[in-house]
Here is the input.
Amino acid sequence: QVQLVQSGAEVKKPGASVKVSCKASGYIFTTYGITWVRQAPGQGLEWMGWISANSGTPNYAKKFQGRVTMTTDTSTSTAYMELRSLRSDDTAVYYCAISWGLPGDVFDIWGQGTMVTVSS
Amino acid sequence: QSVLTQPPSVSGTPGQRVTISCSGSSSNIGSNAVNWYQQLPGTAPKVLIYTTNQRPSGVPDRFSGSKSGTSASLAISGLQSEDAADYFCSAWDDRLTGPVFGTGTKVTVL
Here is the structure.
């Protein structure tokens, strides 16, 4: 079945970087772009950006431009999201998601989430 | 940060009908379809409603969505205990060129 499996939880110090992976299976990886969304504890969802799995072209939310890099590795069907210069308010669960089986900009397949804790 | 505004919480007794509002602007809800997600504790969001009023296969018909102008609503008819969860609205934003999400609403079944 279509599945996104993310890497495990991370604990980082302020100023460090974190790289989260999202391995896709059950479909042709290059067919669907990968979206990254984060959720701070007890808060709502926040779109970070999107990357075309076909061309590798990213589209970052303005808030994260200059601090985030999204990449894909088609040989392993894996997408990556790297966030640099981490701050305490970057503590959140980070999700990858795709719009697979439904029309429109709706995310029907999600990874299980990766908890990133930023603490000194 | 969330661009769409939802009430923090709504509650109801089993069998009751509850509605969740989602307020946006002309660049998002006013010009694009609305989606709704249900999130149970410790899990990823799940699509409940897409394209404003469509239900994916497997979602009970007690869930329904609507939109008017720059606001949208999710209605749950015949509230059940398993409906206790957080609910988020979402819509594409033409100005931000990306999806925006609501602040989230916690549904409590009394």
Chain B has a mean pLDDT of 95. The two ends of chain B are 30 Å apart (CA to CA). The interface with chain A takes residues 1-2, 32-33, 35, 37, 44-47, 50-51, 54, 56, 88, 90, 92, 96-104 of chain B (CB under 8 Å). The first strand of chain B starts at residue 9 and ends at 12.
